[in-house]
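Chain A, query sequence.
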Amino acid sequence: MRRFLSIIAVLVVAGLVAGPAMAGDDAATLKARASAWEKAFNESKLEAVAAMYAKDGTRMPPNAAPAHGHDAILAQLRESRNMMSGVVIETGDAIVEGNLGVTNGRYKIKGTDGTIVDEGKWVSVGKKVNGEWTTVRDIWNSDKPLPIPAK
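Chain A, predicted structure.
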């Protein structure tokens, strides 16, 4: 009986230690996905970027309608990519709770001449499905004020 209780105690302790480690692994994975997104987008591998989103995922660009689903997301990615030379993404925190994760950070958009034309912050919500992370919501907001026409 004592051996049985010792084994149970070891398993409980292992579970307590492995739980946070697994969440840490997932957080690292979410951060790595942001870097992979940046690399694929900058290399114009937009199908690969769109594949990172859930089939019912949503991208919510500033000052534009949301893009829902793979086809709309791919179209929005193509439209965006044609207006810039690339993006720079900095990853901040990644928080994981079960099969949901939230990642945030900062971004810079490079115009076609390579100058920074916009910068701001972003948040991405991921969901782990069958052991793989997929993006279900993605939103970003500029730090620059909206241009207001003169009266």
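The helical segments are 2-42, 46-50, 69-82. The first helix runs from residue 2 to 42.
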